[in-house]
Amino acid sequence: MIPERASSRLDIALVAADAVSAPEWDGLQAAAPHPHFGRQGIAAHRAAGLAPADLHLVTVRAGGRLAALLPFRLRRDLGALGAPVAQPFLSPFVTATPPLVSGGEDVLDALVAGLALASGGRGWRWPLLPQDATGDALVAAMERAGWRIGIAHSFARPVLNRRASEDAFLAGHPHKSRLKDLRRRERRLAEAGAVAFETATEGEALAAAVAAFLALERSGWKGAAGTALACRPETHAFARALFSGAPGPVRPRADTLLLDGRPIAISLALVAGGSATLLKTAYDESRRAHAPGLLLEARIVARMHETAFADRLDSATLPGSALESLYPDREILREIVALPPGAPGPVLETRLRLMRLEASARAEAKRLLGRG
């Protein structure tokens, strides 16, 4: 355990991840649902070597009870001219970064004090912060403490909030032509064989679905490029651990679209607190003309309305997702710069300008590589 500050009600500390017990971490996550910074997700990262073994957390305790938690790391950042900044723990499998918080303004104010301790008074670069109750409350707490905040980037992610029924969802959908196109593609797919939909949430069925996903993803362009989960031992181990169905407040889910009994699209999701994060999808690229990935998503939408397994589907995507035409709702994700009073290094405006230049350069490099 490193620096700690205590008051009559709240204790702020920076601790190693192993210092927080499974029951208290799971209890906080159940009170503030969020799959990425829960114990199961962090444990899967660490077991696979995708997170530092000495990963540390900012924690706040209220009356001995864990009330807030954030995994973090320090890294050198172009926006700070190469100087270190603090950042929430991030990996390619973390698609949102709000802290786990169960409490009011006092807990958030204490958490912000902990963030300043964690960064050593340096700035924070915070990607993928949702513009929701938790994200907005965190920014407000920073501003109360005199931090300067700037938004470097933002984008709208497709989500779907469950309607009263699937009929209500279909009737109010803004892209009727997309729905009509999917019905046409499913009819054409049915001409090729028997179409079925299956869901697995535990045991051998879940393990078999995860194995089928890994094989299906590797058979496509991601396998050829070496970026499929099964191509690297660490990501293969991560997928097995994350979707193992181990006890905890986050429950894995695998949905599969089959043609004559063979998987042609599989979605792996994490369900927590009424939200299903659709983390990974793979499909049979030989069936691309039938859009099997989107047909599977449409089946998941129907099942959500039928069984209420979730109140929201989170696409977990970046801009340009095909789900933008299927999911009519949006969640705003921001990348912010947050500077505590007296933070060393470039001023806020300079950091934001450098971050935007960095993003433009990466987009151009990606465009050129795609062209090649």
Task: Describe the 3D structure.
- It is a single chain.
- With 372 residues, this protein is α+β, with helices and mostly antiparallel strands.
- Helices cover 38% and strands 29% of the residues.
- The protein contains 11 helices and 14 strands.
- The strands form 2 sheets. It has an 8-stranded mixed sheet, with helices on both faces. Strands 1, 2, 3, 4, 5 and 6 form a 6-stranded antiparallel sheet that branches.
- A hairpin with a 7-residue loop joins strand 4 and strand 5.
- Helix 2 packs antiparallel against helix 9 and helix 3 packs across helix 4.
- The radius of gyration is 22 Å and the shape is globular.
- The N and C termini lie far apart (50 Å).
